[in-house]
Design goal:
By secondary structure, the protein is mostly beta strands. The chain has no helices and 11 strands.
């Protein structure tokens, strides 16, 4: 069973930065995709950023130019660098890994951006 453990989020002022990490219990090279999703109160979970096994990335339009997803295969860890944070980035952020047709999820971590 794959486990994904996210770092603690936190409270950040608007305009600030925060980096999330997601450590996998196994080799992340085996995953087709790894990514970050978020869910704000009263809203559906949405994709924030994703990175493929080959290193290709894609981002939600709302975070392009502000967020960067990266991976360290040696550490089996994926990162989400979040800059120029806005109040609307406030949400629970979830790490996701896809292996074939199977989705694995982290427990979620709260990010709160104060305006």
């Amino acid at each position: 069973q794959v486990q994904l453990v996210e770092s603690r989020g936190g409270l950040v002022q608007a305009g600030g930065s925060l980096r999330l990490s997601c450590a996998a219990s196994g080799s992340i090279i085996s995953f087709n995709y790894m990514g970050w999703y978020r869910q704000a109160p009263g809203k559906q979970r949405e994709l924030v950023a994703r990175i493929t096994r080959g290193g290709s990335t894609n981002y939600a339009d709302s975070v392009k130019g502000r967020f960067t997803i990266s991976r360290d295969n040696a550490k089996n860890t994926v990162y989400l660098q979040m800059n120029s944070l806005k109040a609307e980035d406030t949400a629970v952020y979830y790490c996701n890994a896809v292996w074939g047709t199977i989705d694995y999820w982290g427990q979620g971590t709260q990010v709160t951006v104060s305006s």
